[in-house]
Prior knowledge:
- This protein has helices at 17-27, 42-46, 48-51, 55-65, 68-76, 92-95, 100-108, 123-129, 133-141, 156-161, 166-177.
- Helices cover 49% and strands 0% of the residues.
- The longest helix has 12 residues, at 166-177.
- By secondary structure, it is mainly alpha-helical.
- It has one domain (17-177): Ankyrin repeat-containing domain (Serine Threonine Protein Phosphatase 5, Tetratricopeptide repeat, Alpha Horseshoe).
Amino acid sequence: MLRHNYPTGVFLITGVARINSKVEQNMQNPRNEIENESSLDNDFWNDPVIKNLSLKEQFFYAVMLGDYERIQFALERGIAVDTPCFNHGATALIVMTANEKIVRLLLAWGANVNAQDWEGISPLINAISCQQKGVVKLLLEHGADPLLPHHSQPTPLVEAEEGADIEILSLLRQATLDR
């Protein structure tokens, strides 16, 4: 099974050491299992350099850091939910599939469940690779296509057959039959 570890690298716009430190902390936890989704203190977001970033750049950092409140903040101020956040075309939904709370937020804002990055990775593929049963089910309930091909595997179902949890495989098979 492929592992899709988002975020895939440190993308510094400002070069601020605090950002680098926070991003590195988040990247050491690839499933984004952050005890407090708003793990950043107010000083971080009130830093003059951060405050001067565009809304898109702030959204980008909020996604990288798994910061629920800042993602919601950017969405409420008009950032498009499917704005590519990374240099490989990944949307927030593709990146955050290990965090069910954020997935629910993004779906409520109309995120495209079948979006793909430049490598063809979709939210469903990433959720399968992260073994996120609840997110897989949620994505399928919102119309994720279990037969949507991507570059390294023919379909999410094939991805799951290569090592996913039996419950995930069962969900995908059922969704395929229901089509």
